[in-house]
Amino acid sequence: MLNADDIETAADIIKKGGLVAIPTETVYGLAADALNGKAVSKIFKAKGRPADNPLIIHIADTSQINMLVSDFPEKARTLAKKFWPGPLTVILPKSDLVPDEVSAGLDTVAVRCPSNITARQLIKLSSPLAAPSANRSGRPSPTNAQHVFDDMNGRIDAILNGGECDVGVESTVITLADSTPRLLRPGKITVEQLRETIGEVIVDDAVINPLGADKKAASPGMKYKHYSPKANVILLKGGRELFCKYVNKQVDKNAAVLCYDEEIENITIPYISVGRSNDYDTQARKLFSSLRKADEYGFKTVYAHCPGTEGEELAIYNRIIRAAGFEVTNLEG
Ligand code: TXA
Ligand code: MG
To answer: Is residue 19 within 8 Å of residue 152, measured between CB atoms?
Structure first.
């Protein structure tokens, strides 16, 4: 696999219908020319992604959205103006130009303008890019080029190395295709920020709860198992003292804990620190790489704090609750 260290090489691969892993501010994406259905279908094969799970189209500036959607309503314009370039994806009715492979048969399309400059330069030199996270389906999203290599070596044409991702969790996804805007996936841009900007925003049930067997997912990606390391993730709810006491009792030498910086000195089992307890930016940035690290070290069980569900913590909660199969152990009894 080529390490495409220059953007021109990457653009050539894209224009020829190939696959390039690209850095974005959230996580690495696996990109193909969004207007080339055949190229896009290779993404599904490389990831092992179910064909009914649609992709996000990445654009270089807001003007490029016009060819992709059949309607660009006021609220979407307001969001784009405030949050683009940045980690926000909006879903709108699609135009005829968007291949079925991108929208997985839906009549809507997800679009975002990433803030990562390398990504936007590549789009300018090639075309809008369809790109899901560049992990094998079900695995934690990749936040550096090595993660992409570990999952995708031999399955894609090149990786454009842009160092570590800033945000670490995928973009906030909001649909504006229904009468009331609805949050489908929480991210760095919070639902509180979205409400301040456009008023009422509903939080889709599947953001917090497991999808009932009888329910149809608003966002097809939400029905699949996600973010899973090989290790068994166990979420614990309770104060610092209870948390440390509980994990220190675990004598299984294959167990580790994702802890906060302030707890390190009180932890007696192997640990991976995810940042200070009130530093949600750092916790988000380190989440997926910590889960991957736990696998690398061969841990079979990973204990972690159950995050809160307000503000930026909702994004962390949404990912780790899936990694833990929606189970939480309450230490407060
Ligand atoms: O930050 C991100 O969004 C990263 C980077 C690479 O941009 N991309 C990403 O893509 O996370 P992916 O494919 O892993 O997640 C996209 C999510 C999926 O849950 C998918 O089902 C949903 O967005 N989605 C895409 N198009 C949709 C549509 N038309 N309607 C509803 N949900 C959609
Ligand atoms: Mg993904």
So the answer is: no
Which atom of ligand 1 is found nearest the CA of 87? Answer: 1
CA distance 215 to 267: 42
Host domain of residue 114:
4-207
Residues 157 and 284 in one domain: no
Burial class (CB in 10 A: 0-12, 13-18, 19+), 183: buried
The answer on pLDDT for 221 being more than 70 is no
Ligand 1 centroid–CA 55 distance in Å is 5
pTM of the model: 0.96
Shared domain for 181 and 280, answered yes or no, is no
Q: What is the arithmetic mean of pLDDT over 9-17?
A: 97
Using CB atoms within 10 Å of the CB of residue 279, give its burial: 0 to 12 exposed, 13 to 18 middle, 19+ buried: middle
Q: Nearest C-alpha to atom 13 of ligand 1 is from which residue? A: 132
221 Cβ below 6 A of ligand 1 = yes
Asked if residue 26 has its Cβ within 6 Å of ligand 1, the reply is yes
- On whether both 166 and 237 belong to a single domain, the answer is no
pLDDT band at 210 (very low <50, low <70, confident <90, very high): confident
- Would 258 be classed as within a structural domain? yes
Average pLDDT value for residue range 148-177:
97
Q: Give the ligand with the smallest distance to the CA of 23.
A: 1
Question: To the nearest whole percent, how much of the chain has pLDDT over 70?
Answer: 95
